[in-house]
Each structure stands twice: as structure tokens, then as C-alpha cells.
Amino acid sequence: xxxxxxxxxxxxxxxxxxxxxxxxxxxxxxxxxxxxxxxxxxxxxxxxxxxxxxxxxxxxxxxxxxxxxxxxxxxxxxxxxxxxxxxxxxxxxxxxxxxxxxxxxxxxxxxxxxxxxxxxxxxxxxxxxxxxxxxxxxxxxxxxxxxxxxxxxxxxxxxxxxxxxxxxxxxxxxxxxxxxxxxxxxxxxxxxxxxxxxxxx
Length: 201
Prior knowledge:
The chain is an alpha+beta fold.
């Protein structure tokens, strides 16, 4: 029993260490640098251009009850229209999770406020994967890779043979499968830590 407990604690410790970089990677961005969402003359886009936003980060808005934060598409952002909003936040504060790479657009939908400067465009960067640089002094050879051949299509069966089946290609994985894998990994880490804590009692 003691051996099993020690093993589970070791697994939980390793899982927790591996989870730390993911937890540390997410950042909270107070909008405008202070989180204040108002028509005071702050250039939200100048502020945004100096930031690096990644999936998992959060935008924090703080605003008076006379304002709102409305997420819109590019067309409505350009025309300062909240008529076709994606999501609207009221109540004085909003925490908006940036979940995927791409552009996000926010305005205050109160008439005149967007035109007075209450608009924000955010570019969420894709997670960068960097390859290690080749070692100095060693020649770098490019390897050519032959293209993958297309799957062969089975010939049409003749009328005398009805027992032939045509092979089908497996469907391409969905992009959401990668996100599900990350969430699944976090669930495993959480479960491992929970088991370790329960056993430690």
C-alpha cells in the first residue's frame, strides 16, 4: 500500500510540474493598461498594438454602468454598430477569454461612444513553435521528402462479383480535436493532483 501511495504521489508531482508552463502562459490584460473602458481619449488600438495576446489570455474591462462592452465582427466594428453583436457585457466589468488565434473586435454600443474612441481590435497570435537552430560548424543538409501518394481507388466491380468493397479514406481530424486533447490533458493533471492529495491525507 505504501509503495502504491508513493508511486501515485510521484505521478501527481510530475503531472503538476508539466502543467505549470501552461498555467503560467495565460495572462490577464487590463484593457488600455488600466482596465478602464471609457471615452477619456485612451487609444485602445495603440495599446493593443503593443501587446502580445495568446489563446488562454483574458481581457479585463472595467467601465461605468453607462457603458457596455460589445463584441462585434469587423464590418460592425468599422461602422460602430452593435446591432449584430456576438456578445455583450454590462454591469461594470467584463473578463473576456481569448480562446483562439485571430482578430477580435470590441466596441461600446451606446450611441456615440464607439465614434468617440471606445473601440478595440485585438489580434490573438497563434502559439509559436520554434525549431532549434542547427549547431554551429556542422553542415546543414536539406533532405528532400517525396510527396505522399494519393490513395488508390479500387476498380469498379464487374457485374459477376458483388463481394468487392471500395476502400474509403479516414476523415481528416477536426481542429477541435487538438483543443479537446489539451483540455483532456488538463483534466488528467487535475485528477492526478486530486488523487495525490486524497492519498496524502
